[in-house]
Amino acid sequence: MQQDLHVHRCRAMNTEMETILLSQSEQMSRALEQIVNKWFYAVEHRFSRFLPESELSYLNSHSGRLTLVSGAMAEVLALAEAYRIQTQGIFTPFVYDALHAAGYDQSFEKLDREKATTSDEFSFSLASMTLHSAMKAVQLRTGSHLDLGGIAKGWSAEKLAGRLQRKHGVKRGLVNAGGDVQVWGGSSADEPWYIGISSPWNRDEELAIATLREGSVATSSVWGRRWKDSQHKEQHHLIDPRTMKPGNSDVAQCSIVGDSVIACEIWAKVVCILGLKSGEALLRKHCPRLEALIVSDMGDIHLFAHPHHEKERWEINRIDFFHDITM
After folding, report:
1. Is there a contact between 150 and 263 (Cβ–Cβ < 8 Å)?
2. What Å distances lie between residue 268 and 31, 101, 158, 294, 296, CA to CA?
3. What is the DSSP pairing of strand 137-140 with strand 193-198?
4. If residue 251 lies in a helix (H) or strand (E), which one and from where to where?
5. pTM for the whole thing?
6. Which of 133, 180, 222, 275 has its CA 20 to 30 A from that of 26?
7. Number of Cβ within a 10 Å radius of residue 275
8. 29-45 per-position pLDDT tens digit
């Protein structure tokens, strides 16, 4: 029986989704496309802050009240809280009001990037929530609101990849949720997957290729989603919870390679917010197996990797600084 890799693309969560899946027939390919479309549609309509009918919007509108949530929402909130603790609060889902204050108050393709307004009338506090896992309920602190954009894409890619393997028997595949990539089985019996990583300033310029048979890659950049406020000041979507304003570190872009795309997505954002020195220290402390390709705001390229992976896993034209993560 002939088996081929089938490519499918759709749009959800304000970005392009892509799957490359091993399929035994055209009929199977069409069935897998429907599964992928339905999955991303359901994820968007559960976790989007831009859709007034989403579950997240409903939860935010009930801030301060004990609210029953779906199993998927309870799972993502529990993960978000665990990563908030692990990253010492640098990752937090409580940046909704800060994003609105910075002018990111509608989906990015609809945002007037030259005329987004900002407000200095917001006061921010360390928002928190109480999770009741047994009854699948959550209570947000009164006045606080959630944005799950920093975890939902990675979660959706990882969950879909697992479901395609376990439930539908897909032995070889790639799920790319807007740059958050989970792969398994290699691109063939003899070849790994080759994941390109672009320059933060020029998406057509490829900086590196990460080579994986199994695992994940996620990239975060302060140049990915930018706009100007009413004072013509540059803004971006990575909020530093210490200031509740767009971060201002010495990292322009961070790509993380590991086993879990959820972890890779979150830690890529954390490093962008913290900067090289503090980001490296926290990454070494909590995730010594993760590897990172970091582009500084000056354009220097830093590779944090196991020495034997420098040539085996990474194809890079230029490395300015190599950091041995085993030391």
Report:
1. no
2. 33, 23, 16, 9, 13
3. unpaired
4. strand 251-258
5. 0.85
6. 180
7. 17
8. 999 999 999 999 999 99
